[in-house]
Design brief:
The complex is a heterotrimer of chains A (344), B (284) and C (332). Helices cover 31% and strands 22% of the residues of chain A. Chain A contains eleven helices and twelve strands. Chain A has an eight-stranded mixed beta sheet with strand order 6-7-8-3-9-10-12-11, with helices on both faces. Chain A is globular. Chain B has one domain (2-282): MetI-like fold (Orthogonal Bundle), CATH 1.10.3720.10. Helix content of chain B is 75%, strand content 0%. In chain B, helix 1 packs across helix 2 (75-110). Classes of the chains: A alpha/beta (344), B mainly alpha (284), C alpha/beta (332).
Chain lengths: 344, 284, 332
């Protein structure tokens, strides 16, 4: 194991709890979620719909919906607290520190502005990006615009868009879904953020285009040492890109481990069942086993361990006590009574 | 994402404010409606011919709550009778226009061959200003309240037809319609049991405001002289008649004019609220 | 290929959509959504149709269900040409062929209770007589898909995505069809629900003697369920083979690209390879020669000039390529 970086981690989520207002009631949606991402690391946050992975991701740059309220815990980006900051401070955070890439690039891009203009908006917001020596105020507007355009083309090239000098003047509708997603990634990277959060960014794309984007992300990680929080339901994507994985179920993190350890020896019954439920191409035709039952609705969760009604290894303490996180080996934690979590 | 939440909250707050206004408006309209219903029973229609020139243009008093008009007739009775006639006319007009417009619109949206001709017909109707069209029809048919109402039906149905057709056209492409066709559901059943119930409500939500509009149009027609004459109590013609005496006897314009105002205002507020029910931003 | 009698036979199916506008409908172009597709599905088999967006697979489904009329080509169900099916014959066809669409939420009338949605086709298609029998059949189908009977009284928006998907399948099965076309049956559900539904479908196929046409962009799902798989690209089939053979030895570079593009849930497995360059093209402007050539890393001059026919590359394995097997050879 490489020595732990003494600087603060890029992202630290500690015991984050969150409630959603649904039909007049406050319902717990996240229950003491903890995550940690070191510099240059890629963490895959995996879960099915309703697991709370998107909510967790949205809470970092302060993009939660109006009917969400945080009821506990802390979020720290580069060591600085994020919760309780004003909207203005959060906007600043989003502008420089944390870049969020959404699932559907078409709805994210402004249809009436050219691609170049949209990337250049990043530089309008943060002009210091245009001149590393800091003498930006001395530059004329024309010079700033010229540099912004030049940088936009650079970033388009970084995301492997062919013929960037031409694309920079195109409108989003002229581009395919894959190209649009690359533009959005370029917009995210232009900020030179500390953390990039990618929320299901390939779900809306065809599989051959998805392969290109995944390849791009892998290269970018190598090239610019990008720190990545990857939200996905696809275990294949996690296996390809992530260094570490956190598995979420019904608002809780149930297992957290190095990616190889998780796939080779998953400990939590849900992680194991999830891996078995994914049909794979290797080997015989039908190689998947479904998990009986379904994820509980957040309005009506089971007591104790949330997975216990569906768990093949359920035993005495599961229905009554919520399992705490236990370390089964270095860097590998599981929230399950089988591993002596005790009361969580 | 946060912006979406804020928009929802704002829309919900607006909706709530409108809902309270709408409740008040609903009560007002209900009162007017009940008055209109009861009027023929409470007030003999002979009042209309009860001309007493000696008592003409008397101000409001204990004997005559709204005063008297230039024929010496009790204005209060006239306004009440007019409530009955006007409401009946306006509601019938909008009701008929809805039925015709929705029916033809559904057909136009669903049956390709009928779409073009129907749309061209509605184009013709919509290109003529409604007041002018109503005047033209009334001058041909005669100036009774019934003929005026008929004229207004002609004027009102095209917009419902267009709206309904648009709704049906887009609903037709929805996946569940395809699914139902693959399940052997025939075209008639498809329109009647599935498409119309899913599309008609936003169209109908316009109706309350349109009733107010029809009232005002009736009043306008009467005002410019196309009304049914002084022996048929109608708000518009009461206002038109009272106009000449506006400085001597302002109550002649105030009371019937106020009735028009209150009725169409309350209907408009009700219409706002009805349309809010279908605001997609509030769907959650 | 199996010698069993074909339940469904498709020959040179073509569907072109004119791109024109206005009253005069001047033809500005042609969308060649389906451009000459032929295949046969034997009784009791599962035929998988794979392709990305714009390849025309959903249009094929609509044509097979007679929700669209073909521009050219022949569709025969159980030996009978569908072209002239009307009235009672059409009804009988609809009883025997059913489809489950993508988007289970959209597939249900939002104002209809589930019970009503299930019994409606039973009466319109004349499957059962009388409401009591229909309700009973509805209950059976619901139970068959592993759902609680209490969903019958609910409206679609009150149910989860997984439940809705099961309901639309139950609705199709209640009619007791012979052929079930499944258009992306698990695209909108989670992995665990997908596994449940696919397993159920597989069990039912054996138990009820069904034949499936499975359409999906998800190769893994298609592979796990199908006997024969066809790969579709820009309105044509580019490769057809038995499932194991297709995935083991893909002959067409596009098939290889699709297979290599799937991220395997195994960190030790090779990384995804983006073998297909550029973007999925639109069916309005179809490239000259081989349709795939602009994206193909192995394209030669002949590929730009001549459109390769779908021909047998190995025994029982068809591919439309001038250099079949080039991708597998390159991979070593």
């Amino acid at each position: 194991m490489p020595p732990r970086d003494p600087r603060p981690p890029v992202l630290e989520v500690q015991e984050l709890s969150l409630e959603l207002g649904i039909r007049g009631r406050w319902v717990p949606a996240l229950d003491r979620v903890s995550l940690r991402i070191e510099r240059g690391e890629a963490l895959g946050l995996v879960g099915e719909s309703g697991s709370g992975k998107s909510l967790t991701a949205l809470s970092v740059p302060g993009l939660l919906p109006a009917n969400a309220r945080v009821t506990g815990g802390a979020i720290r980006v580069m060591g600085e607290d994020v919760l309780g900051r004003s909207e203005r401070e959060l906007a600043g955070l989003r502008a420089r520190s944390v870049a969020f890439v959404f699932q559907n690039p078409t709805t994210y891009l402004n249809p009436v502005l050219t691609v170049g203009r949209q990337i250049a908006e990043v530089f309008e917001r943060s002009p210091e990006l245009l001149d590393p020596s800091g003498r930006v105020a001395a530059l004329s507007r024309g010079e700033r615009r010229r540099r912004a355009r030049h940088k936009s083309i650079e970033y388009l090239r970084l995301v492997r868009i062919p013929d960037p000098e031409r694309i920079v003047d195109q409108y989003p509708f002229a581009l395919s879904g894959g190209m649009q997603q690359r533009v959005v990634i370029a917009m995210a990277l232009a900020r030179r953020p500390h953390l990039v959060i990618a929320d299901e960014i390939t779900t809306a794309l065809d599989v051959t285009v998805q392969a290109q984007i995944l390849g791009l992300l892998a290269e970018l990680r190598r090239q610019i040492d990008m720190t990545l929080l990857l939200i996905t339901h696809d275990l294949g994507i996690v296996a390809q890109l992530a260094d570490r994985v956190a598995v979420m179920y019904s608002g809780r993190v149930v297992e957290s481990a190095d990616v190889r350890r998780l796939f080779r020896a998953p400990r939590h019954p849900y992680s194991r069942a999830l891996l078995q439920a994914v049909p794979t191409l290797h080997g015989d035709r039908t190689v998947f086993r479904p998990i009986p039952g379904s994820m509980p609705a957040i309005t009506d969760p089971p007591g104790g361990c949330r997975f216990h009604p569906r768990c093949p290894e359920v035993f005495a303490p599961c229905a009554g006590t919520r399992p705490g996180l236990a370390a089964v080996e270095e860097g590998h934690t599981v929230a399950c009574h089988l591993y002596g979590g005790g009361a969580g | 994402m946060a912006a979406l939440g804020v928009a929802r909250l704002y829309a919900a707050a607006e909706h709530f404010r409108r809902a309270r206004l709408a409740a008040a408006a609903g009560l007002v309209f209900l009162a007017i409606f009940v008055t209109g219903l009861a009027a023929p029973a409470l007030i003999p229609s002979s009042v209309v011919r009860d001309v007493k020139f000696a008592a003409k243009l008397a101000p409001p008093s204990a004997a005559h709550w709204f005063g008297t008009d230039d024929f010496g007739r009790d204005l209060f009775s006239l306004v009440l009778l007019a409530t009955h006639l006007d409401l009946r006319a306006a509601l019938t007009v909008v009701g008929a226009a809805l039925v015709i417009g929705v029916g033809l619109g559904a057909l136009a949206g669903f049956v390709k061959g009928l779409d073009e001709p129907l749309m061209r017909i509605t184009d013709v109707f919509l290109s003529i200003p409604s007041l002018v069209l109503a005047m033209a029809i009334a001058s041909v048919l005669g100036r009774s309240l019934e003929n005026l109402s008929l004229a207004l039906v002609f004027v009102s149905w095209p917009i419902y037809c267009r709206l309904m057709r648009g709704q049906v056209l887009s609903e037709k492409e929805k996946p569940y319609v395809r699914a139902l066709r693959s399940l052997g559901v025939g075209r008639v059943r498809l329109i009647v049991r599935h498409i119309v119930p899913n599309t008609v409500f936003p169209v109908v939500a316009r109706a309350p405001a349109d009733v107010g509009l029809v009232l005002i149009t009736l009043a306008a027609l009467s005002y410019i002289g196309f009304g049914p004459g002084p022996y048929v109590p109608e708000w518009g013609s009461l206002v038109a008649a009272g106009q000449a005496y506006i400085f001597q006897a302002p109550w002649l314009v105030l009371f019937p004019g106020g009735a028009i105002f209150l009725t169409s205002l309350s209907l408009n507020l009700l219409g706002d609220w009805a349309r809010d029910l279908f605001d997609p931003r509030l769907r959650s | 290929m199996s010698e069993a009698a074909a339940l469904l036979e498709v020959q040179n199916l073509v569907k072109h959509f004119p791109v024109g506008d206005g009253l005069l409908a001047r033809r500005k172009g042609l969308v060649r959504a389906v451009d000459g597709v032929s295949f046969r599905v034997p009784h009791g088999h599962t035929f998988g149709l794979v392709g990305e967006s714009g390849c025309g697979k959903s249009t094929v489904a609509m044509l097979l269900l007679k929700l669209l009329e073909p521009t050219a080509g022949r569709i025969a169900f159980d030996g009978r040409d569908l072209a002239r099916a009307r009235g009672a014959a059409l009804h009988e066809f609809r009883r025997r062929v059913q489809i489950v669409f993508q988007d289970p939420y959209g597939s249900l009338d939002p104002r209809q209770t589930i019970l009503s949605a299930l019994i409606e086709p039973l009466s319109t298609l004349g499957v059962v007589a009388g409401r009591a029998r229909a309700v009973e059949r509805a209950r059976e189908s619901i139970a068959l898909m592993g759902l609680d009977p209490e969903v019958l009284g609910r409206l679609p928006h009150e149910l989860s995505g997984g439940q809705r998907q099961r309901i639309v399948i139950a609705r199709a099965l209640a009619v007791a069809p012979q052929l079930l076309v499944l258009d992306e049956p698990t695209a909108s559900v989670d992995v665990s629900v997908q596994a449940q539904i696919l397993c159920r479908l597989e069990e039912l196929r054996g138990a009820q003697g069904l034949t499936y046409l499975l359409i999906s962009h998800n190769l893994v799902v298609v592979r796990s369920m199908s006997d024969v798989v066809a790969v579709m690209y820009l309105g044509r089939l580019v490769e057809v083979a038995a499932a194991g053979e297709l995935f083991g030895t893909p002959l067409h570079p596009y098939t290889a690209a699709l297979i290599q593009a799937i991220p395997l849930p195994d960190p030790e497995a090779p990384r995804v390879a983006a073998l297909a360059r550029g973007d999925v093209p639109s069916p309005v402007r179809i490239p000259s020669g081989c349709r795939y050539h602009p994206r193909c890393p192995y394209a030669e001059r002949v590929c730009r000039e001549t459109d390769p026919p779908l021909a047998e590359g190995r025994s029982g394995h068809l591919a439309a390529c001038h250099f079949p097997g080039v991708a597998s050879r390159a991979a070593g």
